[in-house]
């Protein structure tokens, strides 16, 4: 009588593992493939953050530059805003001087405030880009090491 070999679960598991390449080498490759995708997504995410930051900065700068232009016009207007009826006498002139210089100071402070906003916006943008670039550089090095194109 011919002996019939039965397939044991271990034999079937080995066949499935071989078919799916899930041996140690396959598991390691699967792990690295997944991690490479994560690193590539992180790089793209940081590139997108830079792109979004550039767009947002451009939009905000346009708004701030419009406000700055208006504020600078207010400074000129403050210098020219003299009501002749309010400066007819020396006493009236002394009284009006405080209003005059106060209006100019407020207008100049507004210009300075907008300039400060522009500076803060640019500094925040630069910091965002720097952080993202550092992350991209670090992730690119990791990507290259995993791909075997450079050493860590």
Secondary-structure blueprint of this entry?
Blueprint: H1 9-20, H2 24-80, H3 90-147
Helix pairs in contact: 2-3
Task: Identify the notable features of this structure and list them briefly.
3 helices, 152 residues
Q: What would your notes on this structure say?
A:
- 84% of the residues lie in helices and 0% in strands.
- With 152 residues, the protein is mainly α.
- Helix 2 (24-80) packs antiparallel against helix 3 (90-147).
| pLDDT < 50 runs, ≥5 residues | none
Quote the beta fraction: under 5%
Could you tell me how far the N terminus lies from the C terminus, measured between alpha carbons in angstroms?
62 Å
Mean pLDDT: 88
Task: Write down the secondary-structure element order.
Answer: HHH
Strand elements, count: 0
Q: Which percent bin holds the helix content? A: over 70%
**Largest sheet data:** none
The number of helical elements comes to 3
Quaternary organisation of the protein chains: single chain
Outline type: rod-shaped
Estimated structural class: mainly alpha
The radius of gyration is: 35 Å
């Amino acid at each position: 009588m011919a002996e019939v070999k039965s397939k044991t679960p271990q034999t079937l598991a080995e066949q499935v593992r071989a078919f799916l390449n899930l041996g140690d080498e396959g598991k390691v490759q699967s792990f690295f493939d997944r991690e490479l995708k994560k690193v590539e997504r992180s790089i793209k995410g940081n590139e997108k953050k830079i792109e979004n930051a550039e767009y947002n900065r451009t939009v905000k700068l346009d708004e701030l530059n419009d406000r700055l232009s208006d504020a600078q016009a207010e400074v000129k207007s403050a210098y020219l805003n003299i009501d002749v009826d309010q400066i007819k006498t020396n006493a009236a002139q002394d009284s009006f001087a405080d209003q005059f210089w106060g209006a100019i100071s407020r207008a100049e402070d507004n210009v300075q405030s907008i300039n400060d906003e522009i500076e803060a916006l640019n500094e925040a943008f630069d910091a965002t880009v720097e952080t993202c670039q550092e992350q991209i550089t670090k992730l690119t090095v990791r990507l290259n090491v995993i791909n075997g194109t450079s050493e860590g």
